[in-house]
C-alpha cells in the first residue's frame, strides 16, 4: 500500500505538522496542488476555515474514492472543543461520500494570522482573546508528538485489521 501525506497550509502551521510526520514516519509529502493520484492511503492535513477543511483540501477530499485516510487539522479553536468535533464530522462526511475509510484524526491549535486577527469583526471577549493567545503558541513540540502518536495508533489498528495488505507499510513507518 502506497502512503502519502498531502497538506494544505496558508501560513505554515499545517505544513509544519505535515513535515514533522513526514520526517518521523519516512513518508513522502506533497502540497495539495501537487498531490499524486497513486496513493491509496493518505494522511491529509488542512487548516480550518469556517469550521471545516479549507477550500483547497475540501475540493481534493471530494475527488477521493475508496482511499484509507487519516486526517489532521490545525485551528484557532481548542482541539477538544465542540467546534473541533463538528469539524471532524464534516470531514468524515465528505470522505465517506467517496467511500473512503477514515482511520482516525488529530487536531491541534495553530496561530491565527495576525493580519486576519487585526481585521476580525468577532467580539474581543476575554475568552476569545485567551484562546487566540494560546493558539499563538501552536503547533508546538507536544502537538507534533501527539500527531505522530495518533497516526501510529491509527495505522497499527489498520494493520491489525488487514495484516496481509499493510505489513510492509508498518515496517516502513516504524523504521
Ligand atoms: C480566513 C480564516 C478562517 C479561519 N476559520 C477558522 C475556523 O472556522 N475555526 C478555527 O478554529 N480556526 C479558523 N482559522 C484559524 C486557522 O485555521 C489556523 O490559524 C490554522 O492553524 C492556520 O493554518 P496554516 O498556518 O496551515 O494556514 C481561520 C483562519 C483564517 C485565516
Give an overview in words:
The chain has 175 residues and is of the alpha/beta class. Helices cover 50% and strands 21% of the residues. The protein contains 7 helices and 6 strands; from the N terminus they run βαβββαβαβαααα. Strands 1, 2, 3, 4, 5 and 6 form a 6-stranded mixed sheet that branches. The protein binds flavin mononucleotide. Flavin mononucleotide (FMN) is lined by residues 9-15, 47-51, 74-77, 83, 110-113, 116.
Supply the helix-strand structural class. alpha/beta
For the sheet with most strands, the description reads: 6 strands, mixed
CATH superfamily: Flavodoxin domain
Structurally, the number of domains stands at 1
The total count of helices amounts to 7
Pick out the low-confidence regions. Answer: none
- Taking all residues together, what is the mean pLDDT? 92
The total strand number stands at: 6
Q: Which topology does CATH recognise?
A: Rossmann fold
The N- to C-terminal Cα distance equals 16 Å
Percent in helix: 40-55%
**What is the 3D form?**
globular
The helix-strand sequence is: EHEEEHEHEHHHH
The first-level CATH class name: Alpha Beta
In percent, how much strand structure appears in the residues? 15-25%
Which value, in Å, is the CA radius of gyration? Answer: 16 Å
